[in-house]
Write a structure and sequence with these properties.
Blueprint: H1 2-26, E1 35-39, H2 44-60, E2 63-70, H3 76-92, E3 96-100, H4 103-110, H5 114-131, E4 137-139, H6 144-157, H7 161-164, E5 170-171, E6 174-175, H8 183-192, H9 209-225, H10 229-258, E7 259-261, E8 265-268, H11 277-292, H12 300-309, E9 317-320, E10 324-329, E11 332-337, H13 340-344, E12 350-351, E13 357-359, E14 362-370, E15 384-388, E16 397-399, E17 406-408, E18 415-417, H14 418-424, H15 429-432, E19 437-440, E20 443-447, E21 464-472
Parallel strand pairs: 1-2, 1-4, 2-3, 4-6
Antiparallel strand pairs: 5-6, 7-8, 8-11, 9-10, 10-11, 12-16, 13-14, 14-21, 15-21, 16-19, 17-18, 19-20
Helix pairs in contact: 2-8, 4-5, 6-9, 6-10, 10-11, 11-12
Length: 475
């Protein structure tokens, strides 16, 4: 009986190995001569990834190394993770680099959350490994469950196709060879090899949106909807990734006929209205990226506004992020940068990094603290507001209004166009273009001096509060 068990385990181990090799080859994840450095936390995922790559390194003709980041958050537990990583690599003769960061101190200094600060530290450690020539590629242990979690997270936040493809197997020098395995398969594979791993207690805490999806949503799907839900979501993400690429390539081809570019302007021809809405959106995003160099803060709402402008009379225009103006002209829509004299009379948008920030003669003073206050303590002042710290990310901008801006007006997530809000509040038309807004993409978090977005308010579930008070800039 024991011999039979060992035989089955051996076959399954071989099956696991061939599955990983096939995935790596099909997605061109590694190349001969690569020096691969695995981010080894000590958890099941990273241990499994390092073990697999170590087993197949000769077949792939690669070198395998590792790096470990000690976040100094869990005292003896963190030190135990580091010691585990050291022993694991010593036993196999794997070269490893160690990094140590005081994440709590860095988070306080930079006014960021612990989760975000830890992610930044890991990215920095990985970048050091690349820059110092320790590795040519960084291998991360994301798996099928992670991809499904990311898809649902991005979908809930309002992403289009680019966000619904989730995590990619290759992104520059970052590779993810385990995206063909589920968390359960990873743990079973380690058990077959009689390999232990460490459990990070913070992954069991129901504190963050992603943890809520990981611990509550995905298990619910598998228990009550379909046992293969996670695999199906991940498979759909792979299809979406391919569809995204196909539409992107199609949009590039069609863009040659539907747009005309010169050094300072891009003309969008009226025939773009004959295209499917999704294709037209890709064409417009491509044109906007050509002018700005980025798609940050550019949303589906902006492309829809541009298409709507095509049906308006000549001379009508809308203002977009990065000083872009879309104007209806005889030949279609003209995208251009605002003239320099216009830019001089109007402040540029500035990114809000949860630190004191200056904009348009105003100073945004920031204070961060734990939520130990009752609802009665929330300030009612026009220029001092409290927000849920975890709802404010580093993509937020302080700026003037843009086309497509909206507010979340209730707990059900209903939206109101900023333009309609101005009308309802009887804000004079001449003041609207100079109204300072605190924004996350097209969502207005705070119309400074007026209301804030319902979904960013402090509640009994808020862990940490960020207070923003606005005063006139001195000097």
């Amino acid at each position: 009986m024991g011999a039979l068990f060992l035989s089955i385990a051996g076959k399954n181990m071989k099956k696991d190995t061939e599955k990983i090799i096939k995935y790596i080859n099909n997605n061109k994840i590694t190349e001969e001569g690569d020096s691969i450095c695995v981010g080894l936390s000590g958890g099941a995922d990273s241990v499994c990834l390092l073990q697999f790559l170590f087993e197949i390194k000769d077949r792939l003709k690669i070198t395998v190394k590792a790096f470990h980041v000690n976040h100094s958050l869990r005292d003896e537990e963190s030190d135990g993770d580091e010691e585990f990583a050291r022993r694991f690599c010593e036993e196999r003769g794997i070269e490893i680099k160690f990094f140590r960061y005081d994440i709590k101190k860095l988070a306080e200094e930079n006014k960021k959350g612990l989760e975000e600060t830890g992610r930044i530290a890991r990215r920095q450690a990985a970048q050091i490994c690349i820059e110092e020539g320790f590795a040519s590629k960084i291998a991360l242990a994301h798996h099928i469950n992670d991809r499904a979690e990311t898809v649902l997270f991005n979908m809930a936040r309002g992403s289009s196709l680019s966000g619904l493809k989730g995590i990619a197997p290759v992104n520059g020098n970052i590779i993810r060879p385990l995206l063909c395995m589920t968390r359960k398969e990873i743990e079973e594979s380690l058990k077959r090899r009689d390999i232990i791993w460490r459990t990070d207690s913070t992954n069991l805490a129901d504190d963050y949106s992603r943890n809520k999806i990981r611990l509550n949503v995905l298990p619910y799907f598998e228990k009550y909807i379909n046992r293969q839900s996670v695999k199906h979501i991940s498979a759909a993400a792979s299809d979406i990734e391919e569809a995204d690429q196909i539409i992107r390539e199609l949009a590039e081809i069609k863009s040659e006929k539907l747009t005309v570019s010169d050094k300072e302007e891009i003309l969008i021809k009226p025939e773009i209205l004959n295209e499917k809405k999704l294709t037209a959106g890709y064409i417009l995003m491509g044109a906007l990226k050509k002018m700005t160099g980025t798609l940050v803060d550019l949303t589906r709402g902006h492309t829809e506004d541009i298409l709507a402008l095509m049906t308006k009379q000549n001379g009508r225009y809308i203002e977009l992020p990065y000083g872009i103006v879309a104007k209806r002209v005889y030949r279609g829509i003209e995208l251009s940068k605002k003239k320099s004299e216009e830019n001089e009379s109007r402040d540029e948008a500035v990114r809000f990094t949860k630190e004191d920030t200056k904009f348009a003669g105003m100073k945004f003073n920031v204070r961060v603290f734990e939520n130990t206050y009752s609802a009665d303590a929330i300030p009612k002042k026009r220029y001092t507001k409290w927000f849920d710290y975890d709802k404010i990310n580093n993509n937020c901008m302080i700026r003037f209004r843009n086309s497509g801006d909206y507010l979340i007006t209730d707990k059900e997530g209903h939206k109101k166009k900023l333009k309609d809000y101005f009308i309802d509040e009887k804000i004079p038309k001449e003041e609207r273009d100079r109204q300072v807004c605190f924004a996350d993409g097209s969502k207005i978090i705070w119309v400074v001096g007026h209301r804030i977005s319902e979904d960013c308010k402090v509640s009994e579930d808020t862990k940490k509060i960020i207070e923003i008070s606005v005063s006139k800039e001195r000097g």
